[in-house]
């Protein structure tokens, strides 16, 4: 059975693992949740649904990037710009 | 303008790490501590990459001074979109005494060697908080400077820089070549994604020694001791106004 979306899913997982290294609550916490989120849908076979799930994962990446940026920005602002 | 931009990046202890002072008060603990690029340098890199995306400059070069590990920081800059890197090798004793003056001498020498048209630096590093390198570099090169930039626009052969100053903003127009230092609100730096970091491994990092640039790194500063900031004292709760008044009288406030 061909699995055309397999590489997309693996790429998403790897990217999330990479981005999770900076997660405020720790890498281990993030990794555990990431794995369970992927395992929950491991039996999904409908390509359309898989594509939707991958799109959701990509949305999470964007959210995490925004979270990290805001966290850094706020720390800097608090440290240097507030009396 | 259509020249080359040099961006200085510094490897510092990550902003989220709790800084600890060495027991002998000679400095802070750096072994086994997470390091990353100075946040203000990220903003500087982003601004340079943006200029390149607008086709206003032809090349972005990231420069960092320090031991082998600073190459990671240069890689991050390359992943964000810089074209190539220059690693100025400084290690051991020289690295410990490396201050703004020494770095600005290196940056000035490199700006001349690379024929840069613009130099962008972060306004300050979050480890030593010096806020001097940009200003010193501009002085050594005798170039105009736009410090604390919160908005930069290219107008022909001139730059319009909006500066963050006490109590407001100041708009200045300066000639190129120039030195800029990035303030916090200049832009939002992009995230160095995994595929871009992989691609950045193919980009070139040139290694140079300060002696090749004819820069003398001797420092006239001596660190006497490093101390932690004083701990904030715990407060007390009082029950009544009378208690408050008597407490205040006790500590001589009224």
UniProtKB/TrEMBL annotation, chain A:
Q: Name one Pfam family in it.
A: Complex1_LYR
Family to which the UniProt record says this protein belongs: Belongs to the complex I LYR family.
GO BP annotations listed: negative regulation of oxidative phosphorylation; respiratory electron transport chain
Query: Which InterPro entries does this entry report, sorted A to Z?
Result: Complex1_LYR_dom, Complex1_LYR_ETFRF1_LYRM5, ETFRF1
Q: Where is the Complex 1 LYR protein domain?
A: 8-61
| A cellular component term, taken from the record's GO annotations | mitochondrion
Q: What is this protein called?
A: LYR motif containing 5a
UniProtKB/TrEMBL annotation, chain B:
The region annotated as signal peptide is: none
Q: Cite the SMART domains for this sequence.
A: ETF
**Annotated Gene3D superfamilies:** HUPs
- The highest taxon in the source lineage is Eukaryota
Q: Where is the Electron transfer flavoprotein alpha/beta-subunit N-terminal domain?
A: 25-217
Question: Which InterPro entries does the record cross-reference, listed alphabetically?
Answer: ET-Flavoprotein_bsu_CS, ETF_a/b_N, ETF_b, ETF_beta_N, Rossmann-like_a/b/a_fold
Quote the CDD domains the UniProt record gives: ETF_beta
Q: Which GO terms describe its molecular function?
A: electron transfer activity
Q: How does it assemble?
A: Heterodimer of an alpha and a beta subunit.
- This one is known as Electron transfer flavoprotein subunit beta
Q: Which organism is it from?
A: Cynoglossus semilaevis
Q: What lineage is this protein's organism placed in?
A: Eukaryota, Metazoa, Chordata, Craniata, Vertebrata
